[in-house]
Design goal:
It contains four helices and 14 strands. By secondary structure, it is of the alpha+beta class.
């Protein structure tokens, strides 16, 4: 172990501080007793767009990752707010510009990844809106888009992307958080 960093206590001491590079690096990586390091975190968004004239919602039949029916959304980029991500992802995936997004809460997962056993966290921030403009692009690389009533969508659960059924109480109910730890069931708050 290197000599710990020592800060000068008076102007007569030479320099402002005395510290080896090794000691500084060791101090930066040190964890206080009982404190866990922050897990690897992924931030994503999902947006339910509801047509105010028909009540139908826009669904994406995803073809790439998370295959099946879901609402549009995606990963938050570095330096981007979660809200900005939601607006950008909808535009990129559907051709629609959205605004006046209302938060519906978040759904998040936690698991430990082998071989190190480090915790991973995956957050999905949920929004809904009925304010949109532009021309819907019916099909893109991400999948095809279509409008469907909420009732008809709920009858299509076998076509949902993984865990999409767990999002419904957040989009349509009173709960604002769903959490899933490892292989346990979702807990709603």
């Amino acid at each position: 172990m290197s000599t710990p960093c020592r800060f000068a206590t008076s102007p007569s001491e030479e320099g402002d501080y005395a510290c080896s590079i090794e000691a500084l690096a060791e101090a930066q990586n040190a964890e206080p007793e009982g404190v866990n390091k922050m897990p690897n975190i992924t931030l994503t968004t999902m947006v339910m767009i509801q047509d105010p004239t028909t009540g139908e919602v826009l669904v994406q039949d995803r073809l790439l990752s998370w295959k099946g029916f879901a609402f549009p959304g995606g990963h938050v980029n570095e330096g981007e707010s979660v809200y900005e991500c939601a607006v950008r992802e909808v535009l990129e995936e559907t051709g629609l510009s959205v605004r006046d997004l209302q938060s519906c809460g978040m759904l998040h997962y936690s698991w430990h990844e082998a071989p190190e056993g480090k915790e991973k966290r995956y957050f999905v921030f949920l929004y809904k809106t009925s304010v949109f403009s532009g021309k819907l692009i019916p099909e893109m690389e991400e999948g095809r888009h279509f409008w469907i009533s909420v009732e008809a969508l709920q009858q299509q659960k076998q076509r949902f992307s993984p865990n999409f059924a767990n999002y419904f109480s957040l989009f349509f109910g009173e709960q604002r958080e769903a959490f899933k730890l490892e292989d346990r069931e979702f807990v709603y708050h």
